[in-house]
């Protein structure tokens, strides 16, 4: 998809250059826009950004000139009341999507099946021959019965596919919901990307996606990744000299503000979308695997169908030879041959298990919908089945295990520690600090931040920004600081935003009385190494001695051992004020050590225990201090006796041999860089063959999210880059939700195994009974229409019943199985073979000795009664076998059956329709009404399969699993890697 976008971009740019060279477009402002007070045409605005037209930009007076022409004050932003007007004149930020496929197109697709086409031809010919030989209306019954069955199959398939497409469309809309921060009516607020209009002032930070085309207003070190559009790997430095920002690109570093100039289909991304249609979901690994199974079984079915046709035709020829009628062929003979061919075709229809991929799709779609209710948005279908096989979760700490609402809990300043709990702690801190130290502390908080304090419509202050910075700003406000006055008093000259490599944020400000001051905050150990001075208990600046440095380290460790996240605040005064001056990296004065608390989320301990019981190892990978990380990990049950906590730097320094020995024991990795996380995940997957899930929220997590078997991005704290590289978005940032995803993933996989067991049993029985009967008696007991109904039970209804079973708690009490295990387990083969043998014996006895056992005569009506009874018994065997398939190992197959309304509905409708076919639709289905005792006998024979299932489950089979001590495994296996045999 990305390559198609790049090609389209190059073609489009070449075309635009050609057009511009030939003719300059003359844009005229509409009367409506003039009347509203706007001074520039939407098309002209769009062309300036799209063409990076610096001349046009300057011609209109730069950013200030264009802002005045679109009636927006750059400081306050647009007014909320102007949004409808701007949408009317400049358009809304919506992309024109390709029209949804109609229901009739799905009907047409369903009719393209080759076997159905052959059956339609057979039905038409059957009607023609029947009318010629038997007349109206009797002659059309056989053909019409096949046509009605085909219509039913096609309609059910089309309805299923159509509903699924609508569901995926809704999910697609959900995953495209992006919230951005804008300034409107003088306040900073959050709005949906779809509500943006021309003139909106948008705030950008690391990891954000540029939501529309526009111009750079102001910012610091703003680097934009345009590789998704241009294919160029080098990021573009955006500044006042190069102010053009394109929608769909991503902020790689820095921060800034932009003014929206083009939205929706007028943006660069929108114009490209006109020339491209995004493809649908790729097939999941399991679908690919099951398609292979279906192909093999289909070939076997085709061979049996050809053999059946040849045997039936051969018997007809032998009969004609014996009666010396080989040269005499009548229309009845033609109709007989046509019926033989129709039977052969329907054997292929029954044999080809097209329900396998359908079952996967239904199960995944059902799981996706349920997970949406559980606050997890599945972006890729394969994520469900993969998460069910995960053996390891590498989780972030902040926001995932913790609440992500941070507050300053303790502070060490002027050689004193104070707990900030309520007004008493704040008053104590104020009383012990002199005014100079207090001013410096508040300056370091309010000047060196990427967050903002904004006044809402209710007049209350609200902090918008990252949780850590918000905690500091809230603390500064509680201490009596004024954010706005601080920002007006000092002018910011240069900013180095926080990133995962530097692990600090620095800012250079010019002082009112001349000179400049650099503020720095970040990871405690890193900032402490940059300091050579410290503010003492009298507020004086003194040299930072080794003794004092060790004391600060003890304070940091003490805070960390209390599960507090520690930050150091520092500053340095300088004489130079030029923008060319680099922010210093040494010689700072330490102001304070701040301990920020982020309490554990409710239920995290239980969720971690559930994972451990399910054989899923949970590892914490965080950029935080190792002591803080260990304290939190121990509190939630991740860090246990025998486990190892390691820092990223130590991990990087290990040799390959040491790494191999170390990795299985690592439970906590602290102070990790993005490369450490990526390496850790890669080695877990490749060296230890683990199925790894990774959680992350930052741009720095994107490589690990992409490398993992399944990436889980945080929906609240997560950046757009993290979400784009993830398979699942956790909408509530809660670790408990991750456990639900794993539970549903296991449910998907085992449900599909249940369906495969059920379908293969029906396949074997239907093939063998028709083939053997055709060879020995010269006729097939199951007609084309009957086989089509069985196919409906087996494929669509069977998939609906078994593939949508909700998960039970037992799923999280068994260990995951390794990648290399066959999808069809020995347990499944045992059940398939056992049930098939029982059904073949019963149906074989009925076929060859049924008239004697049921005390029927030799007339044609009694033959129809026997064939109807065999068909009815066969169907009830499948109904009870479907109940058996709910549990592949446990004896109590009824447990939880009535919890699934889908399963109960399918069973009820199957039985109801079977009654309808036999009692009222016999003309089309070649059946006759049965007496009540024959109905009971059919049900009784079918129900005996329940007893057979219990007997089979008493036969032990060898299990393939990691933990051989597990005694209640019922055939669940992990996601295959694709290179093993079924």
Strand content: 15-25%
Largest sheet: 9 strands, mixed
**C-alpha geometry:** elongated
Determine the N-to-C terminus distance.
32 Å
| Tally of helical runs | 35
Detailed description of the structure:
- The chain is of the alpha+beta class.
- Strands 10, 11, 14, 15, 16, 17, 18, 19 and 20 form a nine-stranded mixed β-sheet that branches. Strands 8-26-25-24-9-21-23-22 form an eight-stranded mixed β-sheet, with helices on both faces.
- Strand 10 (407-413) and strand 11 (416-419) form a beta hairpin.
- The longest helix has 43 residues, at 735-777.
Give structural attributes.
single chain, 982 residues, alpha+beta, 9-stranded mixed beta sheet, 8-stranded mixed beta sheet, disordered C terminus
């Amino acid at each position: 998809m990305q390559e198609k976008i790049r090609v389209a971009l190059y073609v489009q740019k070449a075309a635009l250059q050609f057009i511009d060279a030939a003719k300059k477009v003359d844009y005229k402002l509409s009367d409506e826009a003039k009347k509203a007070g706007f001074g520039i045409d939407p098309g002209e605005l769009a062309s300036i950004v799209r063409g990076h037209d610096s001349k046009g930009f300057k011609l209109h007076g730069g950013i200030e000139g264009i802002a005045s022409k679109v009636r927006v004050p750059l400081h306050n932003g647009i007014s909320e009341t102007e949004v409808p007007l701007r949408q009317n004149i400049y358009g809304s930020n919506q992309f024109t999507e390709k029209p949804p496929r109609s229901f009739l197109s799905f009907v047409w697709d369903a009719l393209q099946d080759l076997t159905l086409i052959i059956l339609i031809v057979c039905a038409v010919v059957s009607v023609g021959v029947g009318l010629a030989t038997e007349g109206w209306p009797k002659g059309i019954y056989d053909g019409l019965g096949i046509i009605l069955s085909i219509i039913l199959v096609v309609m059910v398939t089309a309805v299923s596919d159509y509903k699924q497409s609508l569901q995926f469309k809704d999910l697609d809309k959900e995953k495209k919901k992006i919230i951005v921060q804008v300034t409107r009516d003088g306040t900073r607020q959050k709005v949906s990307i779809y509500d943006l209009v021309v003139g909106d002032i948008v705030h950008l930070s690391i990891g954000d996606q540029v939501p529309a085309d526009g111009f750079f207003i102001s910012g610091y070190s703003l680097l934009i990744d345009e590789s998704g559009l241009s294919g160029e790997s080098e990021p573009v430095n955006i500044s006042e000299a190069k102010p053009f920002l394109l929608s769909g690109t991503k902020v790689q570093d820095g921060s800034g503000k932009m003014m929206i100039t083009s939205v929706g289909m007028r943006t660069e991304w929108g114009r490209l979308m006109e020339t491209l249609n995004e493809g649908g979901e790729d097939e999941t690994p399991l679908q690919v695997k099951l398609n292979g199974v279906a192909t093999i079984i289909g070939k076997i079915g085709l061979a049996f169908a050809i053999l059946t046709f040849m045997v039936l035709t051969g018997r007809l020829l032998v009969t004609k030879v014996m009666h010396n009628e080989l040269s005499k062929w009548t229309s009845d003979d033609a109709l007989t041959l046509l019926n033989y061919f129709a039977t052969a075709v329907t054997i292929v229809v029954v044999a080809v298990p097209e329900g396998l991929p359908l079952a996967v799709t239904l199960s995944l779609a059902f799981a996706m919908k349920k997970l949406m209710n559980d606050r997890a948005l599945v972006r890729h279908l394969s994520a469900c089945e993969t998460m069910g096989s995960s053996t390891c979760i590498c989780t972030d700490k902040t926001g995932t295990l913790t609440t992500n609402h941070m507050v300053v809990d303790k502070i060490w300043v002027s050689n004193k520690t104070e707990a900030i709990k309520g007004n008493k702690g704040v008053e104590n801190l104020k009383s012990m600090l002199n005014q100079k130290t207090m001013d410096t502390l508040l300056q370091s908080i309010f000047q060196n931040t990427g967050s903002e304090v904004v006044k809402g419509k209710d007049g209350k202050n609200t902090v918008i920004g990252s949780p850590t910075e918000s905690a500091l700003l809230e603390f500064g406000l509680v201490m009596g600081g004024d954010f706005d006055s601080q920002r007006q008093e000092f002018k910011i000259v240069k900013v180095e935003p926080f990133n995962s490599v530097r692990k600090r944020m620095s800012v250079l400000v010019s002082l009112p009385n001349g000179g400049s001051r650099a503020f720095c905050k970040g990871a405690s150990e890193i900032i402490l190494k940059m300091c050579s001075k410290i503010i003492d208990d009298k507020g004086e600046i003194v040299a930072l001695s080794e003794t004092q440095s060790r004391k600060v380290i003890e304070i940091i460790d003490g805070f960390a051992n209390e599960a507090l996240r520690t930050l150091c605040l520092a500053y340095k005064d300088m004489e130079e004020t030029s923008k060319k001056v680099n922010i210093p990296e040494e010689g700072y004065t330490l102001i304070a050590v701040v301990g920020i608390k982020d309490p554990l989320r409710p239920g995290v301990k239980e969720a971690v225990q559930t994972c451990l019981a399910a054989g899923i190892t949970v590892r914490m990978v965080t950029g935080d201090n190792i002591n803080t990380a260990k304290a939190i990990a121990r509190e939630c049950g991740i860090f246990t006796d025998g486990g190892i906590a390691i820092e990223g730097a130590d991990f990087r320094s290990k040799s390959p041999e040491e790494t191999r020995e170390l990795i299985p024991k690592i439970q906590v990795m602290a102070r990790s860089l993005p490369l450490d996380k990526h390496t850790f995940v890669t080695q877990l997957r490749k060296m230890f063959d683990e199925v790894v899930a990774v959680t992350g929220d930052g741009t720095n997590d994107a490589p690990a999210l992409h490398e993992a078997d399944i990436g889980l991005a945080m929906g609240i704290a997560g950046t757009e880059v993290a979400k784009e590289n993830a398979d699942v978005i956790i909408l509530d940032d809660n670790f408990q939700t991750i456990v639900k995803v794993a539970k549903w993933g296991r449910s998907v996989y085992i449900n599909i195994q249940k369906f495969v067991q059920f379908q293969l049993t029906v396949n074997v029985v239907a093939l063998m009974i028709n083939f053997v009967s055709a060879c020995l008696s010269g006729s097939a007991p199951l007609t084309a229409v009957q086989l089509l109904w069985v196919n409906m039970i087996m494929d669509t209804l069977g998939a609906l019943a078994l593939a949508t079973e909700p998960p039970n708690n037992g799923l999280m009490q068994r260990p995951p199985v390794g990648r290399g295990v066959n999808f069809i387990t020995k347990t499944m083969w045992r059940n398939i073979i056992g049930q098939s043998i029982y059904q073949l014996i019963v149906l074989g006895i009925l076929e060859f000795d049924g008239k004697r056992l049921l005390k029927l005569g030799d007339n044609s009506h009694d033959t129809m009664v026997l064939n109807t009874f065999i068909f009815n018994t066969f169907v009830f065997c499948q109904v009870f076998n479907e109940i058996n398939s709910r549990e592949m190992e446990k004896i109590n197959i009824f447990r939880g059956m009535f919890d699934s309304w889908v399963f109960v509905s399918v069973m009820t409708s199957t039985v109801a329709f079977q009654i309808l076919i036999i009692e009222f639709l016999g003309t089309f289905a070649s059946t006759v009404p049965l007496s009540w005792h024959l109905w009971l006998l059919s049900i009784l024979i079918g129900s005996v399969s329940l007893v057979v299932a219990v007997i089979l489950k008493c036969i032990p089979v060898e299990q393939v699993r990691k933990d051989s001590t597990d005694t209640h495994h019922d055939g669940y296996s992990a996601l295959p890697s694709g290179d093993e045999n079924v």
